UniProtKB/TrEMBL annotation:
One of its GO terms (molecular function) is DNA binding. GO terms for cellular component: protein-DNA complex. Keywords: DNA-binding, Transcription, Transcription regulation. This is Transcriptional regulator. It holds the Pfam family HTH_1. The lineage of its organism: Bacteria, Pseudomonadati, Pseudomonadota, Alphaproteobacteria, Sphingomonadales. The keyword rRNA-binding does not apply.
């Protein structure tokens, strides 16, 4: 019987890294090897399976159609291999070992400073690697195996994932000095859409804010800015408009040292739901549920 030669996990790791980075040097750095080692490993892989996976030129790395398919399959194989280790860890101490969590930008700076010290104290064996990225990129990372779980805001279509909701995060309208309503809450109908400043497309907080108001004309009139909530608050402080903020940002002091005042929106839908998501049937599901319970308790 003829011998069967199988690709090694290291070769598949090199292929996926090159697909992710599109550059031999950066892919090699991500794999902690030299560029010549990575290039040689990929040539060995191509020789082993008898096909060209990558077309190499001086300036461009271009995957062949078959190379694209094999790289996607390699990513799934690597994810399955990682879960072998996850099975062993799940049988040992809870919340231990490496965990990669993506967090969206409208949560990370306001929630993480409160929860990380407590997590380190309660679970010293947990090595939590964090990546801040918008919802679409975070969910893609989760489904492709680059992240183990995602801390995000719902509603958001993240794919075929398991989700545990943590808590509701109320939405506020932030006003510059001189424009603050006298009422303790504000009605969505009173918001001037022509002066509304929101995050650009790609930030789900924009969609949550617009949905909370149930006013379709706002999407056309509001000014979408490719920036952070902190920068938008500074613009409001300078009288350029009003904006919407989640309660966690207000509670974290985003309005400190400004003349901006926030009022909660008086509407049933004026909130987003903070949740933790992970891949369905993950062997670390008990860890993720424990993490979700911990995050909910620490908020």
């Amino acid at each position: 019987m003829a011998a069967t030669y199988l690709p090694t996990l290291k070769q598949l790791q090199y292929l996926v890294a090159l697909k992710d980075h599109g550059h031999f040097g950066r892919a090699a750095e991500a794999c902690f090897v030299t560029q010549s080692t990575l290039s040689a490993g990929l040539r060995e892989l191509e020789t082993l399976i008898g096909v060209v996976l990558v077309e190499r030129t001086r300036r461009v790395v271009r995957f062949t159609p078959l190379g694209e398919r094999i790289a996607d399959k390699a990513r799934r194989v690597l994810r399955e291999a990682e879960e072998l280790g996850d099975l062993a860890r799940a049988a040992g101490r809870p919340l231990s070992g490496v965990m990669r969590m993506s967090v969206i930008p409208t949560i990370a700076p306001f929630m993480l400073p409160r929860i990380l010290p407590r997590l380190r104290a309660d679970y010293p064996d947990l090595q939590l690697f964090l990546r801040e990225e918008p919802s679409a990129a975070a969910c893609e990372a989760l489904n492709n195996g680059r992240a183990d779980c995602v801390l995000l805001a719902l509603p958001y279509a993240c794919g075929e994932v398991a989700v545990q909701e943590l808590f509701d995060d109320r939405l506020f309208v932030a006003y510059p000095a001189g424009e603050v309503p006298e009422t303790p809450t504000v009605s969505a109908e009173t918001i001037d859409e022509a002066r509304l400043l929101l995050l650009e497309d790609g930030h789900c907080l924009k969609d949550h804010a617009l949905a909370a108001c149930a006013r379709p004309e706002m999407r056309a009139e509001a000014t979408m800015l490719g920036t952070s909530l902190h920068t938008i608050v500074q613009m409001v402080d300078n009288g350029l408009g009003v904006t919407m903020l989640p309660q966690m940002a207000v509670d974290a002091g985003i309005l400190d040292h400004t003349r901006v005042t926030a009022r909660p929106i008086d509407a049933d839908k004026a909130k987003r739901r903070i949740a933790l998501a992970w891949r369905r049937a993950s062997p670390r599901e008990s860890d993720f549920r424990l993490l979700a319970d911990t995050l909910a308790a620490l908020r």
